[in-house]
Specification:
The complex is a heterodimer of chains A (194) and B (659). Chain A is an alpha+beta fold and 194 residues long. Helix content of chain A is 54%, strand content 16%. Chain A has helices spanning 6-20, 54-61, 76-97, 100-130, 166-193; strands spanning 28-34, 37-45, 50-52, 151-155, 158-164. In chain A, strands 3-2-1-5-4 form a five-stranded antiparallel beta sheet. In chain A, a hairpin with a 4-residue loop joins strand 2 (37-45) and strand 3. The longest helix of chain A has 31 residues, at 100-130. The radius of gyration of chain A is 20 Å and the shape is elongated. Chain A starts with 5 loop residues before the first helix and ends with a helix. Helix content of chain B is 9%, strand content 44%. Residues 4-19 and 652-659 of chain B have low confidence and may be disordered. Chain B has two domains: 48-509, YVTN repeat-like/Quinoprotein amine dehydrogenase (Methylamine Dehydrogenase, Chain H); 521-657, Cupredoxins -  blue copper proteins (Immunoglobulin-like, Sandwich). With 659 residues, chain B is mainly beta. The chains are: A alpha+beta (194), B mainly beta (659). The interface between A and B is small, with 7 and 10 residues.
């Protein structure tokens, strides 16, 4: 079995450190702006919490029949930290075993977690934006209020901007690093074999 | 056509007559005045200007340099607009030994100070008619405390403060017999006293307490100011009617060539109090305090003051002769100069604290007034400003060695230099200025930049509004050698004294909402699930919540004629600028205006059977119009069970109960 390069081993530590930022910083932010909110409203999504102007947003959302956002309703806030934690521990295993194959598997696992997380986030946003109370005071035919996964969207009197926060960027960087190192390790092997 | 020509020619004649006026007051604005007062949309003013409301009883807040009215803070008068004085929680604030008083005459203001500089924590306000001192909290812009002053009438020389807000003073303008006993008015000289009260202020809470009172001979204490720097242990009060007239004061109190500035050594007075030289005197006065946690006021009746007698306690008080019924009594930023403004004098005397102290040390007295030594005028005099104008009233300072004095009769502000008492500049005011204000102009550290004139007469300054006009104020730029008129703006009530402070000192400390988790009002509803209606005899307590856009409960039945209903409305919002209002048809009080996180109570006693709609009065949301409900009042003894709720909880109320 092929051994990891020195760079590959170091990268496992870096990836673990990058992911550790998830416990120190929010991973996502959703900014809202409307004429009545000159200072804007911000919600920050953490690995295990949703913070910021959640109460204000909940207060507004009842007009259009959106569900209230409550931390307790998100099983993700339990599963996600557990998954990432497991992933980080596996990283240590990769570093100790020092095998290329382990690194590839580890990267693949990250890709699965990442894709699933985005899919889950999108699904929640879809549900949150479409599953409206049929008795809501304000009903705009054909209107859904699904926030953008990433980027800008205008919904009624609100402009919404959704983007990664500090830990989100580190998470993305971790992904980029994993992929780059995997390619690097693969080509190195290919070269040696050639 | 001929008619038109006639009209135009008539207009032409009128136009000519107009241009022949003796002086055109609109022509005095020069240069770039407009750009200096223009605060672009979305931008903030540089200063808060707190202005006394005079006979409105309230305090108004303007932005400078724009002159825009930002807020009227209810203090001594009821304010149906937000329920102040009408809600159960606020009623105790206006309670006195004479009962509930819905109005007063609010003259002077002072912002709290630390080391002689404005610290922007509190604003003190006096009530002239029923003697009281209020403390306003400058984080909420609300009245936090009102203290009644016993043994006083006409609390005019108030609420001036010492350098570190150790004391707020309250000096009596209308001398009265100390225990207010029934005596002939003509016994003024024997029985009447002018009491000066020193109110201590707690350094952290701001809570006020009458530390001691000084029973001065009967006269009128008019205005006052604390010493600062070298003179910081002293307080100076101007007086008039040292003639001790009790009728036609207009003539009889204007006889003497000189009245006095009363110099009180309050450090000495403190020592006398500490060593038990004061007399404990039984009396009664109300002490009303607002509690930010319970969102309600409580009244406490205090029953004792310590009285100091200056004819017995030496070295505590001295008199400085001051020409002709002085009004303003102002101490310059260095604390060395004391400026007396004799309303009827043709000059402004400036006293030197160093000379005054020396005169005391040398016993350079010209006599005494009821046992109080009177220092020789010349011995304490620094100089006289000659021919400054007519009717000097009040002086403030720019911190650059200049003084600015208002002149009521000649209707102008005169700038003069403290050092050589020479007049430097003068500008007209429109019309008949009373007080003036320079930001920080009575502190150790004036901010300068502007002087504002608060005038007593308005006449033609604005579009006419019938016989009753607003008051007029003008803003002048004083950053250059010459004062420059910038702006003319109307004010509410009748402004007297005012204070201005850079917005940056207080703006970032201002509260936006009340934290509902800290709401300890006994009638709070912590959420809609906690709402209820409780009957106790004929008292019905409605624990109600307001949130965009419904009231809970919004249907109430089972209430009878003869019941007293208390609506305790909690605003559940936790977002800035989302108040809810609450009003009930036929309520003889006023509305409630409930800030986010606050609980307010409206008492309602229905006078007839029927339906009483209630609703939110402050446009709160797109569905504000829907924020309404019904109280059903039934005849006494009718078989209507107590039922209440909102939405689905009301649907259960069967229609059969209506018979």
């Amino acid at each position: 079995m092929k051994k990891l390069t020195r760079l590959g081993r170091i990268s496992t530590v870096i990836v673990i450190v990058f992911l550790a930022t998830l416990w120190a910083f929010p991973m996502w932010r959703i900014d809202l702006k409307a004429p009545q909110y000159p200072g804007g409203l911000t919600m920050t999504i953490w690995i295990n919490d949703v913070k910021g102007d959640v109460d204000v947003v909940n207060g507004l959302n009842h007009y259009i029949g959106m569900k209230s956002i409550h931390k307790q309703d998100f099983k993700e806030f339990v599963y996600l930290p557990a998954t990432i934690m497991t992933f980080m521990i596996l990283g240590i295993v990769v570093a100790v075993t020092n095998k290329k194959i382990a690194y590839y598997l580890w990267t693949a696992m990250f890709a699965v977690i990442g894709l699933f997380s985005f899919y889950d986030f999108y699904k929640w946003e879809y549900d949150y934006g479409h599953n409206l109370d049929p008795h809501a005071p304000i009903q705009v035919p054909g209107m859904a209020y699904q926030p953008p996964l990433i980027g800008y969207k205008k919904m009624l009197n609100f402009e919404v901007l959704s983007q990664p926060h500090i830990a989100g960027w580190f998470y993305i960087l971790a992904g980029v690093l994993l992929l780059s190192i995997s390619i690097f390790e693969w080509r190195k092997t290919a070269k040696v074999e050639a | 056509m001929k008619k038109l020509v006639l009209i135009f020619s008539t207009l032409g004649v009128v136009g000519l007559t107009e241009s022949c006026k003796m002086k055109n007051t609109t022509a005095v604005v020069e240069g770039d005045a407009a750009s200096k007062v223009y605060v672009a949309p979305g931008k903030y003013d540089e200063f808060y200007n707190f202005v006394s409301g005079g006979f409105s009883g309230q305090v108004s807040v303007y932005g400078l340099p724009s002159g825009r009215l930002l807020k009227v803070i209810p203090v001594f008068s009821v304010n149906p607009e937000n329920g102040y004085g009408y809600s159960e929680e606020t009623k105790p604030m206006l309670t006195t030994t004479a009962g509930f008083i819905p109005w007063d005459d609010q003259h002077h203001l002072e912002i709290s100070q630390t080391n002689g500089e404005q610290d922007g924590r509190w604003l003190f306000a006096n009530a002239n008619n029923t003697p009281r001192v209020a403390r306003l909290d400058l984080t909420t812009f609300k009245t936090a405390e009102i203290l009644e002053i016993p043994n006083s009438a006409g609390n005019h020389s108030s609420p001036f403060i010492t350098e570190n807000t150790e004391y707020v003073v309250a000096g009596t303008r209308f001398s009265i017999p100390i225990k207010n006993q029934d005596v002939p008015i003509t016994s003024f000289k024997q029985n009447f006293k002018s009491v000066a009260s020193f109110i201590s202020v707690d350094k952290t809470t701001g809570n006020m307490h009458i530390a001691f009172q000084i029973a001065l001979p009967g006269m009128s204490l008019d205005l006052s100011h604390s010493g600062k720097g070298p003179s910081s242990g002293w307080f100076f009060f101007s007086t008039y009617n040292t003639e001790q007239a009790n009728t036609l004061l207009e003539v009889n109190a204007s006889q003497k060539d000189k009245d006095f500035i009363v110099a009180v050594n309050w450090k000495k007075a403190e020592e006398y109090v500490k060593s038990g030289k004061g007399t404990k005197m039984k009396t009664q006065y109300y002490h009303n305090t607002w509690n930010e946690d319970t969102h309600s006021a409580t009244s406490k009746v205090e029953d004792e003051v310590i009285m100091l007698d200056p004819s017995e306690l030496k070295d505590m008080i001295y008199m400085i002769p001051c020409p002709k019924s002085p009004h303003g009594c102002d101490v310059d930023p260095s604390g060395e100069y004391i400026v007396g403004s004799g309303k009827l004098a043709a000059l402004i005397p400036v006293f030197s604290f160093t000379k005054f102290s020396k005169a005391i040390a040398d016993k350079n007295f010209e006599g005494d007034y009821y046992g109080i030594p009177v220092v020789k005028y010349e011995a304490a005099l620094h100089g006289e400003v000659q021919k400054p104008g007519l009717g000097p009233l009040h002086t403030e300072f720019d911190g650059k060695g200049n003084a600015y004095t208002s002149f009521f009769l000649s209707s102008e502000i005169v700038k003069w230099s403290l050092k050589d008492v020479k007049v430097l500049d003068r500008v007209p005011t429109y019309y008949s200025i009373g007080h003036l204000c320079i930001p920080g102009g009575d502190t150790k550290k004036p901010w300068g930049k502007y002087v504002i004139a608060y005038n007593k007469i308005t006449k033609d300054r604005y579009l006419p509004t019938g016989p009753e006009l607003p008051q007029a104020a003008q803003l002048y730029d004083i950053s250059g050698d010459k004062m420059q008129l910038l702006l003319d703006f109307p004010t509410i009530g009748e402004p007297h004294y005012a204070q201005a402070i850079p917005a940056s000192v207080i703006k970032d400390k201002i509260a936006k909402i009340y934290d509902i988790n800290k709401n300890h009002n006994p009638y709070v509803s912590m959420g809609e699930k906690a709402t209820k209606v409780v009957r106790n005899g004929n008292r019905v307590d409605v624990y109600m919540t307001a949130i965009r856009s419904h009231l809970t409960p919004d249907n109430i039945e089972g209430v009878f004629l003869g019941d007293e209903i208390y609506f305790h409305v909690t605003n559940l919002e936790q977002d800035w600028d989302v108040p809810h209002g609450f009003a009930v048809k036929g309520a003889t009080t006023a509305e409630l205006l409930i800030m986010p996180g606050e609980t307010c109570t409206l008492k309602f006693v229905p006078d007839r059977v029927g339906m009483f709609p209630f609703y939110c009065t402050d446009f709160c949301s797109a569905l504000h119009q829907e924020m309404q409900g019904y109280l059903r009042v039934s005849a006494k003894g009718s078989n209507v069970p107590l039922k209440y709720g909102t939405g689905s909880s009301v649907a259960a109320v069967d229609s059969g109960s209506a018979k």
